[in-house]
Amino acid sequence: MSGLPVSLIQALREVVGEAGLIADVERMHSYLADWRNAYRGQAALVLRPASTEQVAAVVRLCAEAGVALVPQGGNTGLCGGSIPDDLGAQVVLSLTRLNRIREVDAANETITVEAGVILQRLQEAAAEAGRLFPLSLGAEGSCTVGGNLATNAGGTAVLRYGNMRELTLGLEVVLPDGRIWDGLRALRKDNTGYDLKQLFIGSEGTLGIITAAVLKLFPAVRSLTTAWVALPSPRAAVELIGQMRGLCGDRLTGFELMSRQSLEFVLHHVSGVSDPFADAHPWYVLIELSDTQPDAPLNDMLEQGLGEAFERGVALDAVVAASEVQVRALWALREGISEAQNHEGPSLKHDISVPISRIPDFIARTDQALQQAFPGVRIVAYGHVGDGNLHYNVSKPLGAEDAAFKAQSEAIMQVIFDVTVNFAGSISAEHGLGQAKRDAARHYKDPLELELMRSIKRAFDPAGLMNPGKLL
Question: Which intervals hold domain FAD-binding PCMH-type (predicted)?
Answer without folding.
Answer: 39-220
